[in-house]
Amino acid sequence: MRYRPISPALLVSELTERITAITGRRRIAVAIDGAAGATNTTELADALVDPLRIAGHAVLRISANDFLRPASLRFERGKEDPDSRYSDWLDLGALRREVLDPLAEDGSGLVLPSLWDPVRDRATRAERVELPEGGVVLLDGEFLFGAGLAFDLSVHLWLSPGALKRRVPDAWALPAYARYEQEVDPSALSDVVIRVDDPKHPARYEP
To answer: Entry's Gene3D superfamilies (predicted)?
Structure first.
C-alpha cells in the first residue's frame, strides 16, 4: 500500500472538501473509525466541525461511545472479553434507528445526539436535534464498518499491528481489533484510509 504524508491541517482541509462535494443527499453521514484510545478519531471529527460550518453546513457531532449498551449487557461475559467488545458493546440498532435512519431521504431529520451514559450507566435523556437539509453528522467510534450502517463518507484511521500493540490502552482488546481486520477489513470498505502510526504525521492511502 502506498501512503502520502499529509499534515493534520491538510487532512482536515481535504476531508472538508470531500464532504462538501457530496451531492444528491438531503443530509450527510460521515463516520470516522479507529481503535479507541489508540487513534485520534475524536480529535479529527472535532477538527472538521468549524470548517464545515464555515462552508455552510449545519454540523452535529456524535460519539458512538454514547450509544453503548448498558453495562449489564456489555459485561455479561466480563469486563475484558474481546469478543464482547467487538460484537456486543455498541448498540447498532439504536445508532441506526436514532441517528442514521433520520438522515435518509425520507427521514425526519430528527437525530438523537446521545442515548446512554456509559460512566453513570444510565440513559442520557437527550432531546432530539433537528438537522436541516445540507446538515452533516460527524460520527466517531470503533468497529463502525461491516455491520450494515449506512454512511455517505467512511474514514478509517489505520494502525500497523506493531503501533496498535504499543498504543492501545486496553491490551486485552487486541484480539477484537485483529478480528475486525480479518473479518471486515475496514480499510477495504473505507472511502478514505489514514495511517496514524505517528498521530502528528499521518499519511493518506493513495490507491
So the answer is: P-loop containing nucleotide triphosphate hydrolases
